[in-house]
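[agent] plan:
  1. take the single chain provided in the ticket
  2. run structure prediction with default settings
  3. attach structure tokens to the ticket
  4. add a short note for the reviewer (M.T.)
[agent] executing step 1
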Amino acid sequence: MVTGPVLVIVPTTRFLQGAWPAVVAAIVLWAMMRSMRRHYGATAAELAVTDPGAELARPSRVVAIVLVATAFKAEGLPPRLNRSRSRAPISKSAEPVGD
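[agent] step 2 finished; step 3 output follows
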């Protein structure tokens, strides 16, 4: 019984005492996020596959970048890393690297 009037009176008095910028900002942010959700929903609907039996497009080329802390001469590298100078991939699976 008391909860309803409290939910009306407290925000109203806070709003009139100077909290109106926070209330307006919250409403603006809510509206912006709601419009972004609608946009992403519409984009997802446009990009959805309508025919599950259709063959999906495959990437034309896959590029992997391996970050190396230091560089060594090719003569000192293990054979599996020495082959990495070619443009062909060594393998199609990831290999764990030890210290």
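[agent] step 4 note for reviewer: The chain has a mean pLDDT of 77.
[agent] ticket updated
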